[in-house]
Amino acid sequence: MEIHTAAERGLLRNRVFLALWSAQILSMTAANALTASLIVLVAELTKSNTSSSILILLAIVPAIVFGIGAGVFVDRTDRRLVLIITNLLRAGAVTVMLVLGESVTAAYIVNFLVAAVTVFFVPAEAATIPSVVRKRDLLAANSLFTFTFNGSFLLGFIILGPVVIALAGFPTLFAVITGMFVAAGLLCLTLPPAEPAAEHLGVDVAGEAARRGRRDISEAVRFLRGSPLVAWSLVYVALTYMLIAIAGALAPGYVREVLLLPERSVVLLVAPAGIGVVVGLGVLNAVSARIGHSHLVGLGLGICSGALLVLAAARPVAGLVRRASGLGEGLPYFIAVVMLTTFVFGIAYAFITVPSMTLVQEELPELIRGRVFGVLNVLVSVFSLAPLVIVGPIADLWGVAPVFIGSAALVGIVWYAGRGIRQGPEVAPS
Fold first, then answer.
1. Mean pLDDT of 154-170
2. Between the chain's N and C termini, which has fewer beta carbons within 10 Å?
3. Does residue 211 belong to any structural domain of this protein?
4. Looking at the structure, do residues 61 and 14 belong to the same domain, yes or no?
């Protein structure tokens, strides 16, 4: 712990690392705020859960289509130049929203373009870290980047996007996001140029990269077959990302249909969830040494399933109350119950994701770590892509309740199926 803290102090005196880290914070927060704003915008314009699902799908598809190719491209070009250009391209894409105004078509196009460019930014950023920090500081540097990667989701998707929309409107938020991307690009200008690639990008290089990628995935799958604790931990993480994708797609419709409030009031749902994640992280630090990672994951899955069932019950309950009394004075209390439920969901998210990732990091040999995380990226994409194709139409036809019931059932199935592995020998918390 003392070594880790000392490394972090050393990193904070590294100006080049601080520039790269600051660029990550700005760009990832901006990207998440953009996603949040476009979800609300599309929901307001279409009043359709299906339209929101399509928007989220457009943010996931580029990672599947361009993922391997982006890594090959980044390895064969100046990573500093990639970081600069990707930030400026995303800034340019967002300006389309300022020029064209509030349009569903523009939202779809911009969301896809920003997601596609981000696919190139992420590996370029990760590959730059070792060139700007000492080898002994790599662990601390990656820890800081992992922390801010998750923190930028909370800051952008849950705080910046919804709050600025509610207070100042979409044009102001789009202007802020554009400025953040430009600032990130300017910070990347201060980075040292990358060394020239040993091999130029071409058909042979790309083909070899594809073959190597298939071989690496096969090796990772073989490892996971012999390490069920790691395999199930990856499933838990992918499950939480899937739930976040579904919640993001349905949240505006939930606010409109269940709480009878404008879509931009989605902050009433996402803010308590974000606070719940922060509280959950604090609780984890206090109790993980006594309870153990696996048991915390099981507890989180149980809490998550219960919270989803409460959210599913909210709409029929609201209908009964409305018919009985017109809701009236009871509305604030009803909204408070829903907000409390999303707060609990945030705690459950922390209880599932953080211990699961810790188990993966503790159990994975360093030599196969990158390949296993590549499998995790595939799992996240598959888990998120398939449900989003159907949850929007289901919510439009029968309401959000069946989707939340189905999600709660899936969480319950995963809890039951993985209980034997979680109840095995516990990995000692570090």
1. 83
2. N
3. no
4. yes
